[in-house]
Write a structure and sequence with these properties.
Blueprint: H1 5-33, H2 43-53, E1 60-64, E2 71-73, E3 78-82, H3 83-86, H4 91-108, H5 112-141, H6 144-181, H7 187-225
Helix pairs in contact: 1-7, 2-4, 4-6, 4-7, 5-6, 5-7, 6-7
Length: 226
C-alpha cells in the first residue's frame, strides 16, 4: 500500500488510535486482573450463570490457550475462555467471560445484528484482503472498472466492521445487566467491569474508524484519477 496525503491525513491517525486502544485494553485488563471479586466468582462461574439465567443448555464452556483470546464460537456453540479468565476470580476475568457469554445469548435468541455480521464474514475476509489491493491496482493501471471492483469489495469489509460495533456493545450491556440482576458483583466491582469492557470496545471502534478512513481514502483517490 503506497503512501499519499490521504493516507497520512485519514488512515495514520486511526492507526495511532488503534495502537492506543490496544495499550488501553491490555493495561486495563492487567489492572483489574489483580482485583479479586468479593464473592469468589471465576470467569467460568460467571459464564455458567449467564447461560443458566437465559435457559441456554446447549453451549459449552472450555479453556483456550493464550491471553485475551476469549471468544464465542457460534458454529460449535462453545464459549472459549483464556487461561487468565477461565479459572480466575478477578473482576477482569468475570467481565470478559460475561461479555463472551453475551454473544452466546445473542446467538441463542437469533439477535439480528449478530446474524447479519455472521453472514458478512466471508465478504469481509475477501474484501479486507483483496479489495484495497485491487483498487490500488486499478488506480496504478488506469482501469476504472478494476478500481470500482476493489472499492465495492472493501465496502463489504467496512460494513462488517461497522455492524460489529452494536454487536459488541450489546454483548457488554447484556453481561453487566445479568451480573447486576443476579448480584454476582457489587456496584463498585461492576464499575471495574465496565472499564475493562469499555477499553475492549475501543479496539473495535478503532478498527471501524480505520476501515472507514481507508475506504474514504480509496474513494478520494479514485475521484482524483478521473
Amino acid at each position: 500500500m503506497f503512501f499519499d496525503e490521504y493516507y497520512l491525513i485519514l488512515v495514520v491517525p486511526t492507526l495511532i488510535l488503534s495502537l492506543w486502544a490496544q495499550f488501553m485494553v491490555k493495561s486495563t485488563f492487567a489492572k483489574y486482573s489483580k482485583i479479586l471479586c468479593s464473592r469468589n466468582v471465576t470467569g467460568m462461574d460467571a459464564a455458567s450463570l449467564l447461560l443458566k439465567s437465559n435457559s441456554i443448555n446447549n453451549v459449552r464452556i472450555e479453556p483456550v490457550q493464550g491471553s485475551l483470546t476469549d471468544h464465542y464460537d457460534p458454529s460449535a456453540k462453545i464459549v472459549r475462555l483464556s487461561q487468565p479468565v477461565y479459572g480466575n476470580n478477578s473482576i477482569a476475568a468475570v467481565g470478559v467471560a460475561a461479555h463472551e457469554t453475551g454473544h452466546a445469548i445473542q446467538h441463542a435468541i437469533k439477535w439480528g445484528p449478530l446474524a447479519l455480521r455472521s453472514t458478512l464474514v466471508p465478504v469481509a475476509n475477501i474484501g479486507s484482503s483483496l479489495g484495497p489491493w485491487i483498487a490500488i491496482a486499478g488506480i496504478g493501471l488506469g482501469y476504472p472498472l478494476l478500481l470500482n471492483i476493489g472499492i465495492f469489495l472493501f465496502s463489504g469489509a467496512v460494513l462488517f466492521y461497522v455492524i460489529t460495533l452494536p454487536v459488541e456493545f450489546n454483548a457488554s450491556n447484556r453481561a453487566i445487566a445479568i451480573l447486576r440482576q443476579n448480584n454476582v458483583l457489587s456496584e463498585q466491582e461492576l464499575k471495574g467491569v465496565k472499564k475493562v469492557l469499555t477499553a475492549a470496545a475501543l479496539t473495535y471502534v478503532a478498527s471501524a474508524l480505520t476501515a472507514i478512513a481507508s475506504l474514504l481514502r480509496l474513494i478520494l483517490l479514485s475521484r482524483r484519477r478521473r
